[in-house]
């Protein structure tokens, strides 16, 4: 069984990115900048943003964290987004999800400058991505594709199953796999034959946010399993959407939790910020 080590690969890629950032700074005295907007006091969001800010610092990317209380008005957040859109020192803008229910994720994303949309959620970026044009791609699916490429996992001609159809992971993941030559099936809460789909799939990506959701299903011997989930149990232990212990001896390759997809998501965010920076020079 091959362990798809996202932590190791992200360290390798971020080390290369740091070198590029520093070489560019020596020539131009300019650095890429990332602004993260965090609304409310969600403990998980606080941890995620902290990791993103630290990663920026480690590779030499200027970072700004903008904090708003849970009760903030949509108008106030939009004003901040517009301000960051105009700020030449900021090349990437990220709104940390989830956001309070009284705010519209759609409205906030659409107001963002698509060239600074490092999460790839703006309608313009989604449209370009769908058309196969160069675009900023959502970080988690992009990180997964880089992980599969690093470990030379064959995608072309394979049967891929994506469990979960969110706009953040599931749908863009299915599109990337399709663009890479896989025959893709997307499963969700209305899917009736999940067991059958799992048994047929060469590659399974699970992204629904339920601890050990994939645990009783039979899978094809030698399948590749990508676990996107990060769930904290009452005991405090972090587990994925996949029962790692059950499938590690059946799969040919599998991601661990933690240390699999998570580090690659942050890596992709910084690489998208760098791409955005270069596109505006």
Layout of secondary structure:
Elements (H helix, E strand, L loop, with lengths): L1 E2 L2 H23 L4 E7 L3 H17 L2 E7 L5 H13 L5 E4 L9 H7 L11 H9 L7 H12 L8 E5 L6 H10 L3 E5 L6 H7 L2 E4 L17 E4 L3 E2 L5 E2 L4 H4 L5 E2 L6 H19 L2
Parallel strand pairs: 1-11, 2-3, 2-4, 5-6, 5-7, 7-8, 8-11
Antiparallel strand pairs: 9-10
**Strand-pairing-aware structural class:** alpha/beta
CATH top level class name of the largest domain:
Alpha Beta
Physical arrangement of strands within the biggest beta sheet: 1-11-8-7-5-6
Strand content: 15-25%
Radius of gyration: 19 Å
Helix content: 40-55%
Gross morphology: globular
The CATH superfamily of the largest domain is known as NAD(P)-binding Rossmann-like Domain
> Given the structure, what is the number of helices?
10
Number of strands: 11
Question: How would you briefly describe this protein structure?
Answer:
Strand 5, helix 7 (170-179) and strand 6 (183-187) form a beta-alpha-beta unit. The protein starts with a strand and ends with a helix. It has helices at 6-28, 43-59, 74-86, 105-111, 123-131, 139-150, 170-179, 194-200, 244-247, 261-279, and strands at residues 2-3, 33-39, 62-68, 92-95, 159-163, 183-187, 203-206, 224-227, 231-232, 238-239, 253-254.
């Amino acid at each position: 069984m091959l362990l798809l080590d996202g932590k190791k690969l992200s360290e390798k890629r971020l080390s290369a990115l740091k070198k590029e950032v520093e070489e560019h700074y020596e020539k131009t005295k300019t650095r890429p900048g990332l602004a993260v907007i965090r609304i409310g006091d969600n403990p998980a969001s606080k941890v995620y943003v902290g990791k993103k800010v630290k990663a920026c610092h480690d590779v030499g990317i200027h970072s700004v964290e903008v904090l708003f209380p849970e009760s903030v008005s949509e108008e106030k957040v939009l004003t901040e987004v517009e301000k960051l859109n105009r700020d030449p020192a900021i090349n990437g803008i990220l709104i940390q999800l989830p956001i309070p229910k009284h705010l519209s994720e759609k409205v906030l994303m659409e107001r963002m400058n698509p060239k600074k949309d490092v999460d790839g959620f703006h309608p313009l970026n989604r449209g370009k991505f769908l058309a196969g044009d160069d675009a900023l791609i959502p970080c988690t699916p992009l990180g997964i594709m880089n992980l599969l490429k690093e470990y030379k996992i064959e995608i072309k001609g394979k049967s891929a199953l994506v469990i979960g159809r969110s706009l953040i992971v599931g749908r863009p993941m299915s599109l990337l796999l399709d663009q890479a030559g896989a025959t893709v099936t997307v499963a969700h809460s209305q899917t009736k034959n999940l067991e059958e789909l799992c048994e047929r799939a060469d590659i399974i990506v699970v992204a629904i946010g339920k601890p050990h959701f994939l645990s009783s299903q039979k899978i094809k011997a030698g399948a590749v399993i990508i676990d996107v989930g990060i769930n904290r149990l009452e005991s405090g232990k972090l587990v994925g959407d996949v029962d790692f212990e059950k499938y590690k001896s059946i799969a040919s390759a599998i991601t661990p939790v933690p240390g699999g997809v998570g580090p690659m998501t942050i890596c992709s965010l910084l690489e998208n910020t760098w791409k955005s920076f270069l596109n505006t020079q």
